[in-house]
Design goal:
single chain, 7 strands
Length: 377
């Protein structure tokens, strides 16, 4: 046996096998040996194909020994040398198994790049699967609403009123600020061109029609998707991670009825109200610019707004808000319930919910605008 230090001893009595005897103090505070102490022995004995371990009774260790063994195992892996861990303390073997699993998960081999058309095909298939999942989820929501109307579903009114407050009152300040500024921006930008023709009074038409018809609903939808839709996804994602949704299923409660329906209903009720409020704040923003900077007559501005904004425009804006509410609620709840069961999955679900909701809002706006153009409203 060859003794290298008070902590390491090497035995070559078995052919093609290196027996390492560990002894002494292997605490971090006592200082760590480098794995080079062992790899140098492997270099001088190139016929070694396996390493075994034995421990002495005076061995004292903590994570310092695990760090040394991890580095040694990685070095032996490069040299195609097998490391037998049976001779190590039982607790050290379990810690090594956990550490090696984490290492394999975090440092995975780089995947070969797929051909362009293959990647496109996979994306198309993923989109088809996601679309089918969304339609299935919408079907579950429709069935649950039917059960709610007939009084057969389990519905907690306390949770519902709390969600109404979150979707409405807690979002009011942000909607006020954004809508007011958007109205001011529209009035300021419109005045730059209208001044050239002496038609500044038509700023009221631009601000009133654009805000009431579509912009208030779109801006409110984007705000709510970033605030409420993301919170829905995060909450349900954490419940999925903590297996609370599985517990509801075990108790015989439908997660869609118990968790999704109150959120969808609260958002469908509050979005039109927030949109009407955003209409008012947008008109007030245009009023401030027109009267304060362009010195228009306040009464004339309000009269022009009243004549320009038709009741049909208000209904179009409310239709936008209703559709946006369904899109935001479904996107947030779907991504949350289908979330992966880890912290990173919750983050991905939250991001995906916001992106899906905003994308859906833009697509729905284009479709509704096209339909209104065909109908002539």
């Amino acid at each position: 046996m060859r003794v290298l230090s008070e902590k390491l001893a090497f035995d070559y009595s078995i052919p093609k096998t290196l027996l390492i005897k560990l002894s002494g103090d292997w605490h971090i505070s006592a200082g760590l040996l480098s794995e080079n102490e062992v790899t140098s022995q492997l270099t001088s004995h190139p016929d070694i194909v396996q390493i075994n371990f034995s421990v002495s009774e005076d061995l004292k260790w903590d994570s310092g020994l695990i760090a040394f063994l991890l580095k040694l195992i990685r070095e032996c892996g490069h040299k195609n040398i097998q490391v037998a861990r049976e001779g190590l303390p039982h607790e050290a073997q379990k810690l090594l198994v956990l550490a090696l699993k984490v290492h394999e998960k975090n440092i995975s081999p780089q995947k070969a790049r797929k051909p362009f058309f293959e990647e496109i095909g996979e994306k198309v298939l993923q989109f088809g699967g996601s679309l089918g999942l969304a339609l299935d989820f919408l079907g579950d929501i429709a069935v649950s609403f039917g059960r709610l109307i007939t009084g057969k579903s389990y519905f907690r009114w306390d949770d519902f009123f709390l969600l109404v407050k979150r979707c409405g009152v807690d979002t009011l300040l942000l909607v006020s600020l954004i809508s007011l500024l958007v109205g001011m921006i529209l009035a300021f930008v419109g005045s730059i061109q209208l001044k050239m023709f002496g038609a500044q009074i038509f700023i009221s038409d631009i601000v009133g029609i654009s805000m009431v018809r579509v912009l208030s609903a779109v801006m409110t939808g984007i705000i709510v998707s970033g605030r409420i839709g993301a919170s829905f996804a995060a909450e349900l994602g954490m419940m999925q991670t903590n297996e609370e949704i599985d517990a509801l299923k075990t108790l015989g409660l439908s997660p869609v009825e118990f968790l999704v329906i109150p959120r969808v209903l609260a958002l469908v009720i509050m979005m039109p109200i927030l949109t009407i409020y955003a209409d008012l704040m947008g008109v007030i923003g245009g009023f401030f610019i027109s009267v304060g900077m362009l010195h228009l007559n306040p009464v004339e501005y309000l009269n022009h707004t009243q004549h320009a904004v038709k009741l049909s425009y208000v209904w179009i804006g409310l239709i936008h808000s209703f559709v946006f509410a369904v899109i935001i609620a479904v996107a947030g709840c779907l991504r949350g319930i289908k979330c992966e069961r880890d912290a990173a999955g919750v983050g991905r679900a939250t991001t995906s919910a916001v992106v899906s909701a905003i994308t859906g809002i833009v697509i729905a706006t284009a479709i509704i605008t096209f339909i209104c153009q065909i109908l002539g409203v």
